[in-house]
Write a structure and sequence with these properties.
Elements: H1 10-18, E1 25-28, H2 30-35, H3 42-45, E2 48-51, H4 56-59, E3 63-69, E4 77-81, E5 85-87
Antiparallel strand pairs: 1-2, 1-5, 2-3, 3-4
Bound molecules: zinc ion.
Zinc ion binds near residues 55, 58 and 65.
Amino acid sequence: MTSDKPDVSLVQTILRVTRMKPGTKVRLSGVFLRNTGQMTGGEGLSKWTVVECDCSLCASGRFVAVDEPGGATLSGHRHFAEANLVQVGVPSIRNDP
Ligand SMILES: [Zn+2]
Protein backbone atom coordinates (compact mmCIF):
# COMPACT_ATOMS: atom_id res chain seq x y z
CA MET A 1 0.00 0.00 0.00
CA THR A 2 1.44 3.30 -1.05
CA SER A 3 -0.01 6.75 -0.74
CA ASP A 4 -0.71 8.34 -4.08
CA LYS A 5 -1.33 11.73 -2.55
CA PRO A 6 1.48 14.16 -3.33
CA ASP A 7 2.74 16.35 -0.57
CA VAL A 8 1.18 19.80 -0.75
CA SER A 9 3.78 22.50 -0.50
CA LEU A 10 3.28 25.54 1.68
CA VAL A 11 2.95 27.72 -1.42
CA GLN A 12 0.18 25.57 -2.83
CA THR A 13 -1.59 25.68 0.50
CA ILE A 14 -1.45 29.47 0.58
CA LEU A 15 -2.70 29.69 -3.00
CA ARG A 16 -5.58 27.43 -2.20
CA VAL A 17 -6.58 29.50 0.80
CA THR A 18 -6.35 32.86 -0.94
CA ARG A 19 -7.57 31.98 -4.40
CA MET A 20 -10.83 33.26 -5.80
CA LYS A 21 -13.63 30.93 -4.92
CA PRO A 22 -16.54 29.83 -7.12
CA GLY A 23 -19.21 32.54 -7.16
CA THR A 24 -16.69 35.37 -6.90
CA LYS A 25 -17.36 38.18 -9.38
CA VAL A 26 -14.18 39.09 -11.21
CA ARG A 27 -12.87 41.25 -14.00
CA LEU A 28 -9.49 41.79 -15.59
CA SER A 29 -7.19 43.97 -13.53
CA GLY A 30 -6.35 47.50 -14.61
CA VAL A 31 -2.68 46.61 -14.69
CA PHE A 32 -3.28 43.65 -16.97
CA LEU A 33 -5.50 45.66 -19.32
CA ARG A 34 -2.95 48.44 -19.50
CA ASN A 35 -0.11 46.03 -20.11
CA THR A 36 -2.01 44.35 -22.91
CA GLY A 37 -3.44 47.51 -24.48
CA GLN A 38 -7.06 46.61 -23.73
CA MET A 39 -8.12 49.69 -21.80
CA THR A 40 -10.88 50.31 -24.29
CA GLY A 41 -13.18 47.62 -25.58
CA GLY A 42 -15.14 44.67 -24.36
CA GLU A 43 -12.54 42.83 -22.33
CA GLY A 44 -12.03 45.82 -20.05
CA LEU A 45 -15.74 46.01 -19.28
CA SER A 46 -16.39 42.30 -19.00
CA LYS A 47 -17.20 40.67 -15.72
CA TRP A 48 -17.30 37.00 -14.98
CA THR A 49 -18.21 34.69 -12.16
CA VAL A 50 -15.65 32.15 -11.02
CA VAL A 51 -16.92 28.61 -11.41
CA GLU A 52 -15.86 25.31 -9.89
CA CYS A 53 -13.27 23.52 -11.99
CA ASP A 54 -10.90 20.70 -11.19
CA CYS A 55 -8.69 20.77 -14.27
CA SER A 56 -4.94 20.69 -13.90
CA LEU A 57 -4.60 24.43 -14.51
CA CYS A 58 -6.98 25.26 -11.69
CA ALA A 59 -5.40 22.64 -9.48
CA SER A 60 -2.12 24.53 -9.83
CA GLY A 61 -3.77 27.46 -8.09
CA ARG A 62 -2.60 29.90 -10.74
CA PHE A 63 -5.70 29.83 -12.94
CA VAL A 64 -9.41 30.07 -12.38
CA ALA A 65 -12.33 29.08 -14.60
CA VAL A 66 -15.18 31.51 -15.31
CA ASP A 67 -18.76 31.31 -16.54
CA GLU A 68 -17.91 31.86 -20.18
CA PRO A 69 -17.60 28.99 -22.64
CA GLY A 70 -14.16 28.50 -24.06
CA GLY A 71 -11.11 26.33 -23.99
CA ALA A 72 -12.62 23.01 -24.91
CA THR A 73 -9.66 21.17 -23.48
CA LEU A 74 -10.17 22.81 -20.09
CA SER A 75 -13.56 21.61 -18.94
CA GLY A 76 -15.31 23.89 -21.45
CA HIS A 77 -14.78 27.04 -19.43
CA ARG A 78 -12.68 30.06 -20.24
CA HIS A 79 -9.67 30.32 -17.94
CA PHE A 80 -7.71 33.27 -16.67
CA ALA A 81 -4.51 33.56 -14.74
CA GLU A 82 -5.68 34.44 -11.26
CA ALA A 83 -2.99 37.13 -11.05
CA ASN A 84 -4.65 39.03 -13.91
CA LEU A 85 -8.03 39.24 -12.19
CA VAL A 86 -9.48 41.41 -9.48
CA GLN A 87 -12.62 40.95 -7.46
CA VAL A 88 -15.39 43.28 -8.64
CA GLY A 89 -15.97 46.07 -6.14
CA VAL A 90 -12.85 45.31 -4.13
CA PRO A 91 -9.92 47.74 -4.38
CA SER A 92 -6.73 46.02 -5.48
CA ILE A 93 -3.15 47.01 -6.08
CA ARG A 94 -3.53 45.08 -9.31
CA ASN A 95 -5.49 48.05 -10.63
CA ASP A 96 -2.80 50.63 -9.90
CA PRO A 97 0.84 49.81 -10.39
ZN1 LIG B 1 -9.93 24.72 -14.71
